Prior knowledge:
The protein has helices at 15-24, 36-41, 85-100, 116-121, and strands at residues 6-9, 45-51, 54-63, 68-76, 106-109. By secondary structure, it is an alpha+beta fold. The protein is globular, with a radius of gyration of 15 Å. The N and C termini lie far apart (54 Å). The protein is 27% helix and 24% strand. The chain is built from 4 helices and 5 strands; from the N terminus they run βααβββαβα.
Amino acid sequence: MTRTTLTLADRLPTPDEHRGIAEAVGWSHAFAWEFLPASLAGSTAGVVALEGQEVIGMGRLVGDGVSYFYVQDLAVMPSHQGRGIGTLLLRRLLDHVRNTAPATAFVGLFSTGEGAALYTREGFTPGDMTGMFRLVHPAA
Length: 140
């Protein structure tokens, strides 16, 4: 079988592409799918990895687009993991920050246990902060 060339496209995944990858990596419980189009539209930037015409990886940035950025939904289809695609996606997102932020920018993220090594290799550390989160439910 001939493998097609891997390319990166500076765009957000479509809702269907996002859902396909998210479900493939076990994140089906992490999203309210009916609101995903609005969530994607609120992104600062995105990148997808394609093999031929098939989207096999994704990542996006959320934040204010000036000083604060968060890596969100970085994932690669399980059948394509271990090839450095996650690293390429992350680096492309960090390049976006370098090319658009007017001054030193903060880039944060939450990682799964499986993804922590990727982020550590790329210079992410806990620093002197404690990551926290809270779920806020909509008003009735």
